[in-house]
Structure formats: C-alpha cells, structure tokens
Amino acid sequence: MIHLDLIGIGTGNPDHLTRAAETAMRSADLILLPRKEDKAELIDLRRDICAQVLAGTSVQVVEFDLPVRAVEGAYLDTVEHWHDAIAERWAAEIAAHLPRGGRVALLVWGDPSLYDSTIRITRRLVAVERVTVVPGITSLQLLCAAHAIPFNAVGAPVMVTTGRRLREGGWPEGADSVAVMLDGGCAFTTLDQPDAVIWWGAYLGMAQEAVEAGRLVDVADRIVARRAELRRVHGWIMDVYLLRRGRDLVGEEA
C-alpha cells in the first residue's frame, strides 16, 4: 500500500510550516523533491526545510528532475501531457525507492488546494491507495499580511484568477476585488481602471521579500521594472497581487 501525503509548506520559510506539516514529514518513509530547470534556489529551500525538520530521523529524501511543459500547442493540452509526464516520474521514483509500499510525501508550495495541480496529478497514480492533504499557508495570506490589509472588502466577494485570464478577459464582471496568481506577463498593465489600487508582493515570506502598493496608474510601471530586476538578480520570481476598486480601499497609501 502506498500512502501519499501532500504537504503544504508555504513559500519556503520554515517558520511557516504547521505542526501538522512537520509531523507528516517525519512520518514519511520517502520524501520526493522536484528539481526545476534554472530554479536552483527553489530546491535549496526544500532541502533546508528537510534538513531542519528531519534531523535525527531516517526519512529518505530523493530528488528528481521535473518534466518540462511544452511551450507549443493548446494550453490545456500541453498541461494535460505535462501532468501525465509528472505522474509517470512520480510513479517511477516511488517504485524504485518504496518497492514494498509505505508512506511517501510531496512538499507543495503554498497550499495544495490553490492553483496547484498536485492533487489532480495524484489521481493518475494507480498504485496510491490513500491520499492525505496537509494544508499550508498560501501566498494570498502572506500578501495580505505583508501589506496589513484584509483580503476582501466589507461584505464583498473576491475573484481569484490567473494573469492569463485577466489579460484575455479584462476585469472580471461583478468583482470589486481580484486576486491574481501565475502572472508572468504583468497583465495588470492591460487594465483601464483609473481608480483601482494594487497590492503586489514577490518572494513573500522569504528573506528577499519585495512589496509595492498604490494606485494602479501610479505604480504599474514601477512594479514591472522592479519585477524584471528581481527576476534578473535571482533567476526566477514568484509573485501575486490583489486589485481592488470602489470605496473600501484599506491601506492604499502603503
């Protein structure tokens, strides 16, 4: 029997691990750590977390190269093929290192439920008989904490979407607050929203954390320039932002 734990680890800061996450890590027989091209710092953060949490245990930690998603083709098709390849890689590593079964864990950035496909990929693993999800701190929580703002306006909903959807469809209809993830192209620059406010953050919870906030028309160019410079310096970037329009613009002067 293979028992798979999907453990949310926040954004790489060991202080953000829950006690449940630490317990799950120590209970594993095998922890799989993915390596991504040109993102050595990400694997280093996972290594540091394992070194701190697993000290004095016999948990086996195995690294593997994560398959790369194709850049050509329809987006959803390329994602499906990519997920198939990841599942195959996981299955191969589990079979090689836990041939008699046991408990395997994957460390998931943020929380496994929010714009992460780990849960979906596990459904492709026929050898896994049980899946447990350990929730983690999300980048949206850290963003609001960094700016000391509430996630939603009073009595109002928040639309959580991606940069691609924001660029293609504009400001979501009926939403005064929009949280945007997975935006590699600064889609906020395409919006015609003179009264909107943006709260942006990159590397949230990490030593290199960077934040910007203000009226979108005033700070958009500054965010684009700072994001490009941070990516150049670190070789990668993970960022997220919250947009809001209307009367409840708490913290807009930040």
From TrEMBL:
EC category: transferase
Pathway(s) where this gene product acts: Cofactor biosynthesis; adenosylcobalamin biosynthesis
Organism for this UniProt entry: Sphingomonas yabuuchiae
Highest rank taxon of the organism: Bacteria
Record-linked NCBIfam families: CobF
GO molecular function per UniProt: precorrin-6A synthase (deacetylating) activity
InterPro entries documented for this protein: 4pyrrol_Mease (IPR000878), 4pyrrol_Methylase_sf (IPR035996), 4pyrrole_Mease_sub1 (IPR014777), 4pyrrole_Mease_sub2 (IPR014776), CobF (IPR012797)
Annotated catalysed reactions: precorrin-5 + S-adenosyl-L-methionine + H2O = precorrin-6A + acetate + S-adenosyl-L-homocysteine + 2 H(+)
Pfam families: TP_methylase
The name this protein goes by in its record: Precorrin-6A synthase [deacetylating]
Keywords in alphabetical order: Cobalamin biosynthesis, Methyltransferase, S-adenosyl-L-methionine, Transferase
Chain ranges of the Tetrapyrrole methylase domain: 6-218
GO term, biological process aspect, one: cobalamin biosynthetic process
EC number(s) on file: 2.1.1.152
